[in-house]
Amino acid sequence: MAKMSLKDQLLKAGVVDKKRVKKVNKEVYKANKETRTTVNEAKLAAEAKRQQQIERDKELNRERQLVVEQKAQQAQIRQLVEMNQIIGKGELSYNFEDESTIHRVDVDALQQRQLANGLLAIARLEQRYYIVPAVVADKIAERDASVIRVRNVVEMEQEDADDPYADYKIPDDLMW
């Protein structure tokens, strides 16, 4: 014999009628529906909060990655400068402006010409100035242009076709 539910037992005993059973069933159905809706809303709110947390974590990871990349970039710059620096001999001074202040670097005559012609450059790293080759200065500038303080670019002069003094060139090493 199959078990009878309480509802069926009450109907059989005559304690309740079919109308009352239908009314109670409707109320139970509505209560269950409301419970399901609040559960769904709670699930949606929890999911939204989880998505916000994921986005926040992604942003923090991006910031951390950016800091790591910047540190690596600074290490590369430091390595380039330290490995390729040229030590000045100190016979002459090369004066240059940095942050509206005149600074000087001791160089020899060849280095002075090379700085003026753009073959050498001056880089600033941790409050010190270093003389580096122009090729290295270009590599450093790709990573951080603010490190390079002096990088002269010599423009090639175009000869004027109508220049009457074209045949009379002035030597570069002429001292006045």
From TrEMBL:
It comes from the Bacteria. This is DUF2058 domain-containing protein. It comes from Alginatibacterium sediminis. The lineage of its organism: Bacteria, Pseudomonadati, Pseudomonadota, Gammaproteobacteria, Alteromonadales.
